[in-house]
Amino acid sequence: MAKRVKIKIDDNSSLREELDAIYEEKTQAQLAQWALQLAKHILVLFDYNIASDEIIQNGFSVNEAWQKGEARMYDVRQAGFKVHQLAKDCSDKGIQAAFRVAGQAIGTGHMREHAMVASDYAVKAINIKFPNDKEAVTRERYWQIETLRK
Predict the structure, then answer these.
(1) What is the DSSP letter of 51?
(2) Which residues contact 114 (CB under 8 A, 6 or more apart)?
């Protein structure tokens, strides 16, 4: 059953359904790996310097440690909350959406459903970066599908 979209986005619904079907076949750890790739991909799209942001770096590191069984779910949640606070404090709507992708990606270690929410926030970021551009959304969903398949 397809996961409900929880945010308002201009999407390619058939590609989202395809992504959701692939998502259902993946483990939580595989989704966490993919979601972090997605977050990095979107932050780079907005020319965000990930290496200079200690909160983002820490969040990614905590999620990666969780994937190896070296961090608690509590640690993942706290790291995700810190990234969501960055989003809340950000006035740039594009970067804010990119931060939401990262926060949801980090949170995938807490609940697998966060991976699909991260993918939807990625589409929201695309909507902001490329307004009214269905082709940009389609390219993003194809990127997500192909990356998750690997």
Answers:
(1) G
(2) 35, 80, 104, 105, 107, 108
Q: What is the pLDDT of residues 81-120, one digit of tens each?
A: 999 999 999 999 999 999 999 999 999 998 999 999 999 9
9 Cβ contact list (under 8 Å, min separation 6): 120, 123, 124, 127
> Which letter does DSSP use for residue 11 in this model?
-
pTM above 0.90, yes or no: yes
The number of helix segments (H) and strand segments (E) in the chain equals 7, 0
Count Cβ atoms within 10 A of the Cβ of residue 35 and give its class: 0-12 exposed, 13-18 middle, 19 or more buried.
buried
CA distances from 110 to 60, 97, 113, 115 (A): 13, 20, 9, 10
C-alpha 32/C-alpha 105 separation (Å) is 7
What DSSP assignment string belongs to 109-145? TT-TTHHHHHHHHHHHHHHHHSTT-HHHHHHHHHHHH
Domain spans in the chain, listed from the N-terminal domain onward: 13-149
How far apart CA 59 and CA 113 sit, in angstroms, is 17
Phi, psi for 112 (deg, rounded to 5): -60, -30
